[in-house]
């Protein structure tokens, strides 16, 4: 038997250190080639670290939340044969992550059951003998599903490879629990004294740092305007009916991207980056639109590059592709960097007004609120129209209030008269 030591790889782009975000294995686990061992967080993206060998985990080189230098020992695996470490040159033993260290999934799995899933609260499915700190194998999607259902993964028997927990295992556990349910009706009103300590690590730490940095450095101001989107929604419905089956369905987002592209021709100061250390504003001809996307690990901003050269369907397809990649944790560093202006939307949950935080070093972000039908007075008549607010933020160090208002009014005019989106 030998030892194969895996070191923190060089992620590229001059990155000297990364944050160890999540372990997917523990000491004593048997692993196979290409199995994901850990997730590490760079300044731009979450990166999977796979195993290049088959073997048994004998030591871990850090714990979640620890910042590790490129080239430092990440994990040691016992393998058949000589391995890649000679006995005479054996490095100092790497440390095993302390059992008492807080772990994201251990905390998440002890989260109180949400009120939206009361039936999961009384589940008592088939128990599995795991230690309280043991991290069972499961994909991020399965972990999110378990959290929504109020199920502790350490209690679920996994039927996938190497005991990995699958969505079907959650359903089986839930079904077993329902058949054994006997919680008293008054349980929902019982007093609670439990507490949680949730370590801010990985993507959540990176988001927190970026948001704090943005609000401290930029001089934010927001501008809100309502838009009558009845006409553009009618156009969208018409195009989907005529071309949806062959070209794909259009959402409102590609229309918004197109409106931003056209409006930026008259307001190039919005499509810019501000280097506040060098005191230099760089205006860009290319429009690289960041589209804020919620994923299981937090907010990501994949980038639709050269939006100025894309058709509605091209933009729609690229937005959908990038959103899927971000939500699945598969977006590359290049796909998550280089934006010049950002579009953020919560869709039907968008509320009436929001105050988006700038995606530095950009100087403008356009926020989309939900569409609602409202009575409006047009030419003295009360009519029902589809209305939507744009809640946008700007860096007042670079963008004047009048210019911001005119920019949003230009977008409003283009969306309210959607034919002008395509008039050159």
Automatic annotation (TrEMBL):
Enzyme Commission numbers on file: 2.3.1.-
Cofactor: (R)-lipoate
A molecular function (GO) term: lipoic acid binding
Domain Lipoyl-binding: start-end pairs: 3-78
The UniProt record lists the keyword Acyltransferase: yes
Subunit structure: Forms a 24-polypeptide structural core with octahedral symmetry.
Source taxonomy: Bacteria, Pseudomonadati, Pseudomonadota, Gammaproteobacteria, Pseudomonadales
GO cellular component terms listed in the entry, alphabetical order: cytoplasm
UniProt protein name: Dihydrolipoamide acetyltransferase component of pyruvate dehydrogenase complex
CDD domains listed in its UniProt record: lipoyl_domain (cd06849)
Domain Peripheral subunit-binding (PSBD): 137-174
Enzyme's top EC category: transferase
InterPro entries according to UniProt: 2-oxoacid_DH_actylTfrase, 2-oxoacid_DH_E2_comp, Biotin_lipoyl, CAT-like_dom_sf, E3-bd_dom_sf, PSBD, Single_hybrid_motif
Provenance organism: Pseudomonas fluorescens
Keyword Cytoplasm set for record: no
Signal peptide coordinates: none
Keywords: Acyltransferase, Lipoyl, Transferase
Similarity remark: Belongs to the 2-oxoacid dehydrogenase family.
């Amino acid at each position: 038997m030998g030892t194969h030591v895996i070191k923190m790889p060089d992620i590229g782009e001059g990155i000297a250190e990364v944050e160890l975000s999540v372990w997917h294995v523990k000491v004593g686990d048997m692993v196979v080639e290409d199995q994901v061992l850990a997730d590490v967080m760079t300044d731009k993206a979450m990166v999977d670290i796979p195993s290049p060998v088959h073997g048994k985990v004998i030591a871990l080189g850090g714990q979640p939340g620890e910042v590790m230098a490129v080239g430092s020992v990440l994990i040691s695996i016992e393998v058949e044969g000589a391995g890649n470490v000679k006995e005479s040159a054996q490095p100092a033993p790497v440390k095993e992550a302390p059992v008492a260290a807080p772990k994201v999934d251990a905390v998440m799995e002890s989260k109180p059951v949400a009120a939206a899933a009361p039936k999961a609260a009384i589940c008592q499915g088939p128990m599995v003998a795991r230690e309280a700190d043991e991290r069972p194998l499961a994909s991020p999607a399965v972990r999110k599903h378990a959290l929504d259902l109020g199920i502790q993964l350490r209690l679920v028997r996994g039927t996938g490879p190497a005991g990995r927990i699958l969505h079907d295992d959650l359903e089986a556990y839930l079904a077993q629990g329902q058949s054994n349910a006997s919680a008293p009706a008054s349980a929902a009103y019982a007093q609670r004294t439990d507490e949680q300590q949730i370590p801010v690590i990985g993507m959540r730490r990176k988001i927190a740092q970026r948001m704090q940095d943005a609000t401290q450095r930029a001089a934010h101001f927001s501008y809100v305007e309502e838009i009558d989107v009845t006409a553009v929604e009618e156009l969208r419905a018409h195009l989907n009916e005529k071309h949806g089956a062959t070209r794909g369905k259009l959402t409102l987002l590609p229309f918004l991207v197109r409106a931003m592209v056209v409006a930026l021709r008259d307001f190039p100061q919005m499509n810019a980056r501000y280097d506040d250390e060098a005191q230099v504003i760089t205006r860009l001809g290319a429009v690289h639109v960041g589209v804020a996307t919620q994923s299981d690990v937090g907010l990501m901003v994949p980038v639709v590059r050269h939006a100025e050269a894309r058709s509605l369907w091209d933009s729609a397809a690229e937005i959908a592709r990038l959103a899927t990649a971000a939500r699945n944790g598969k977006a590359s560093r290049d796909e998550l960097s280089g934006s010049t202006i950002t579009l953020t939307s919560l869709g039907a949950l968008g509320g009436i007004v929001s105050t988006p935080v700038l995606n530095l070093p950009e100087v403008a972000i356009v926020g989309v609120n939900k569409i609602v039908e409202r009575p409006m007075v047009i030419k003295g008549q009360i009519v029902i129209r589809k209305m939507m607010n744009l809640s946008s933020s700007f860096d007042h160090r670079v963008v004047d209030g009048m210019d911001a208002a005119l920019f949003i009014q230009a977008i409003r005019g283009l969306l309210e008269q959607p034919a002008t989106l395509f008039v050159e």
